[in-house]
Amino acid sequence: MSRPMPARPPLLLAVAVAGVLALTACSPASDDPVSDAATSDGPGRPVTVMLNWTPNAHHVGIYAALANGWYADAGLDVTVIEPADAGVEQAVAAGAADIGLAQAESLLPARAAGVPVVSVATVLPVNDSTLFGLASDGITEPRDLEGTRYGGFGGALETEIISALMRCDGADPATVEFVTLGNIDYLAGMQADQFDTAWVFSGWDALRAGEVEGVPVDQIRFADHLDCIPNWYTPLVLAAEDTLADDPDLVDAFLAVTARGYELAVDDPATAASLLSAEVPELDAALVDAAVAYYAPLFVTEGGTWGEQDEATWTAFAEFLSQAGIVDSDVDGAQAFTNEHLPQ
Amino acid sequence: MTAPAQDAAAPAATAPRPAGPRSRRAAAPWLPPVALLVGLVALWELVVVLADIPDYVLPAPSEVAAALVRNADVLAGHTVSTLTTAVVGLVAGASVGVGLAFAMAASTSLRAALYPLVVVSQSIPMVVLAPLFVVWFGFGLLPRLLVVALVSFFPVAVATVGALTSADRDQVDLVRAMGGSRRDVMRHVLLPGAVPGLFTGLKVAASYAMFAAVVGEWIGASSGLGLYLERSRASFATDQMFAAVVVIAAVSVLLVGLVFAAERLAAPWRVAERARDHAAASRAPW
After folding, report:
1. What pTM did the predictor assign?
2. What is the dihedral of CA B50, B53, B55, B58, to 10 degrees?
3. Residue-wise pLDDT tens digits, B4-30
4. Which whole-number Å values give the CA distances from B65 to A57, A281, A325, B38, B81, in the listed order?
5. Domain count of chain A?
6. Is the domain of A180 the same as that of A113?
7. CA distance B77 to chain A (A)
8. Are A258 and A26 in contact (CB under 8 A)?
9. Which chain A positions have a beta carbon within 8 Å of B198's beta carbon?
10. Range of the domain at A284
C-alpha cells in the first residue's frame, strides 16, 4: 500500500468545501419566492406581518390584497411570516415584526405583563369558536358535555368557558374530564375515541369535518351563547404602541389595503379563495374554498365596516378574564384597542 | 467457496484474498434495501385499501406519490430553501467541529475542559433552543443556520478528535526521526489520519442536517419544507406531509452520498480499505 501524497487530502477537502459554499451562494437570495412574485415595481417600505397561525381562511383579506399587488401599490413591501410558536405580541413589541395577528385572550395578558401592543382592527366581529363533536355523540347543548372528555391545550380559559357554559345550562362542569392534547387532528382523535369534544373554529376544523371529509359533527357555537359567555375578538390585528406613535401612517396604509382585501372576500369569496390558494398552494384548495365562502358574510356586521371594534366587548371580556384570575383586575379593556387607524 | 482455515494457515506476508466467488460479489449492494422498501410500500398500500383507512389518518403510498407529483413545483422551491440552510449550516458546523477537534487534540487540559461541554450541548432539546435563537437573532436565516450548525458540529468534532488522538505513534516517531518538525508531523501524519474521522463525523451530521433545518423552520420562516409541513398539517393534508417527509429523506440520502463522494476524492485509500473490511466482515463466522 503506497502512502497518499500528503498535500492531496487537505487541498481536495478545501476545494470540496469551497465548491459547496459557491453552490449555496449561487442559490436564490430570496427567502420566499412566492411573495417576491407578488410585489411589483419599486420595493416600497418593508413591512413584516406575523401571523397568529399558519395561513388559513381568516387571513384571506391579507393574501388577496397581497396577490393583487395592492400593498405594493400603496408603497408597502409586505412579507408575511408564520411562527409555529405563539409570542406574536412579544415579537411585535420587540420590533421583529411591524404588524401581528393575535387574539384578545393573549393580548390582554400580554398587556398586563407590560408588553406594549394595541389591537388596531378585528378580523371577525363575532367569535367563531365552537365546541365540536361527532354527531353520533349528540353533544348539541352545554348540558350534553356532562361526563364527556374535552381535548384541549390545558389552558385556564378553556376551563372557564366550558364551566360557564355548563353552569348557565344547569350542568356540573366537574363531570368533564380534561385531556391535554398537542397539535393533532381533532377529527381523527375523536374518531379513534380518544376524546369527545374539542374547541375549534367553526369555519375551519368543524367545516372541514362536515363538508370536506363528509363526517357529520355537532357544534356548541359560542356565538349562540353570548347571553352566558362574552364575545371577544379573534383573530385581531395589532401593532406596537411605539409604531402607532411614531409611524401611524404605516398602520393606516396597511389597514386600508387589508380592509379592501377583506371587502373583496365579502363581495367575491370565490375569487378571494383562489387568490389565497395561489399565494399559499400548500393549503387544501377545497377546504379554503369552503371556509372562505363560510366566512364571507361574517367578516363585516350589518351596516358596519371591516375591522371595527366595540369598547363594550373589550371591557366585558377583560372583566371575564380578571374574574377568572387569568389577568390582573387592573387591566383596562378600553386601553387595549383603537379604531383610529381603520379607513373611514 | 474459499476456506477460512486456508487463509489463516497461509503465510502472513501475503495480502488477504478477495472475499467469495465472483457471483456473490456481483450482486448490487443497493438491491436488498430497495427490495425491502418496495415490499413494505406494497404492504402499506394493501393495508390502507383493505382496511379502508381515511386519508387523514394514513394516506396510501399512491396518494403520497400523487401529492408529490401534484405539488412538485411548490416542493422544489421549498426544498431549495431547506437544502441551502442545511448545507450552509452543515459546512459551518463541520468547520467549527474540526477546529474544536484540533484544539482538543493539541491540549489535554483543553480536551478535559471542552469535551463534557460539547456533550452537554447535544442534550439541550432543539425545540427549546430554536425559539431562543429567534428571540436573540431575529427571524432571518441565522437562527436556522445555528440550529443546523449546533447539530452538525458534534459528530464531526467527536469523530475527528478520536482520529487525531489515535494517530499512529510509529509514524510520528518516524517523521521526528527523519528530522521533521511539529508542522511536518501535522502535515504528514495527523492531517491524513484525521480525514477518515472527519468524514465519518460528516456522514452522521449530513444524515440529519435536513431534519435540523426543518426544525429551525418551524420557528418562523417564509419558505422551506418545515413551513410546507406546518401548512399541510394545518389544512389536514396528510398526503402532502408524507410527500414532504419523502423529499426530506431522499435529500438526506443524497447529502450523505455527496459526503461519500467527497471522501473518495479526499481520501481514496479509504475506499479500498473499506472494501477490504467489508469483504472480511461479510464472511459469516459460522
Report:
1. 0.79
2. -100
3. 444 444 444 455 555 555 555 556 888
4. 27, 17, 51, 13, 22
5. 2
6. no
7. 7
8. no
9. 13
10. 33-126+233-336
